[in-house]
Amino acid sequence: MARPLDVLNNALNSPVIVRLKGGREFRGSLRGYDMHMNLVLDNAEEIRDGEIVKTLGTVIIRGDTIVFISP
Fold first, then answer.
1. Domain count of the fold of the chain
2. pLDDT tens digits, residue range 30-54?
């Protein structure tokens, strides 16, 4: 059985989708994470209703705001 951090480790340098509390959603390449599930995404984009709303570049997402991460 895979642990959550194992899944993140396997997703490094791959595209992921991250949904935050409040419904915001981001897509980007996972570059790093820590034990609190704070994430670093490169080439990040904010997505709303399947459409790109904003291109952001490199972002840090605080782990306690994350609802799910989909590799």
1. 1
2. 999 999 999 999 999 999 998 999 9
